[in-house]
Write a structure and sequence with these properties.
Blueprint: H1 5-17, E1 21-24, H2 28-37, E2 45-47, H3 56-64, E3 75-78, H4 86-93, E4 97-99, H5 105-116, E5 123-126, H6 144-154, H7 156-183, H8 188-201, H9 204-215, H10 218-225, H11 228-240
Parallel strand pairs: 1-5, 2-3, 3-4
Helix pairs in contact: 1-7, 2-3, 6-7, 7-8, 7-10, 7-11, 8-9, 9-10, 9-11
């Protein structure tokens, strides 16, 4: 799992409501150590390809080098980059399936069932990092399908908590972006975090804007950043409406 508490809570909630018990790791290195040191083999590992520190591909290579039976654990990639040129490399290191981001609960459940059958009786070690869809034009404020699917899977109370967490964390990232741009410092990491956070809860326009900020040079980013507060406010209000 990455260092973003909102993403962590959403995916953990989806898995728990699906009948799984969950163990999380903050990066590839911890995921490898978790699999290696577990008292019993896990049923499945959910692994992102792009992570700070040790990336997912390296982590899978190390897991596959562990003694049996731990080296045989099924691995599902949670990333929009699990396609195209990355697919052969993913398959080469031993990944068993892919679920694109933003995560759809039904797709995640289907991928897990494809490799382990019914909901896992053991824990599911899970590693997350924000991965971007290949190309998403700025359009509607929300990704309604994503909002509806996650809200339904989490339930009203957990969804409300997720929206509150999103609002709090997104405001922190917006402040970091604005501060970085004002002082001439690096803004792309905060934009990257805001992008994944937004897409995961279905705040599509905010995520699209964060993607544009992540790619933009500082002078263009300054102009784009002026829209952040308004889009964030509108997104939180829309997400807070009864689903």
């Amino acid at each position: 799992m990455d260092d973003n508490a909102v993403n962590r809570d959403i995916v953990r909630g989806l898995l728990v409501r699906g009948g799984h018990s969950v163990v999380t790791a903050v990066d590839g290195d911890e995921a490898v150590r978790t699999v290696e040191r577990s008292e019993e083999p896990f049923d499945v590992v959910l692994m992102d390809i792009q992570m700070p520190g040790m990336d997912g591909l390296t982590a899978i290579r190390l897991i596959r080098a562990l003694p049996a039976p731990r080296n045989g654990v099924p691995v599902i990639a949670l990333t929009a980059h699990a396609s195209g040129s990355s697919l052969p490399e993913c398959m080469a290191v031993g990944m068993n399936g892919f679920v694109p981001k933003p995560l759809r609960p039904a797709a995640l459940d289907a991928a897990i069932r494809a490799v382990v059958g019914s909901p896992a009786s053991k824990a599911v070690p899970t590693v997350f990092a924000e991965a971007a869809p290949e190309s998403v034009p700025v359009a509607d404020l929300l990704d309604r399908e994503q909002v509806d699917s996650v809200a339904e899977a989490l339930g009203p109370e957990s969804w409300s908590e997720a929206v509150q967490g999103f609002s709090r964390t997104a405001r922190e990232q917006v402040a970091r972006i604005s501060s970085a741009l004002a002082s001439g410092e690096e803004h792309r990491r905060a934009a990257h975090t805001l992008k994944g956070l937004s897409w995961n809860v279905g705040a599509k326009r905010l995520g699209d804007l964060a993607l544009a900020l992540e790619k933009a040079p500082p002078d263009e980013a300054l102009a784009l950043a002026g829209s952040l507060e308004g889009v964030l406010k509108d997104s939180v209000e829309a997400l807070s409406e009864p689903q």
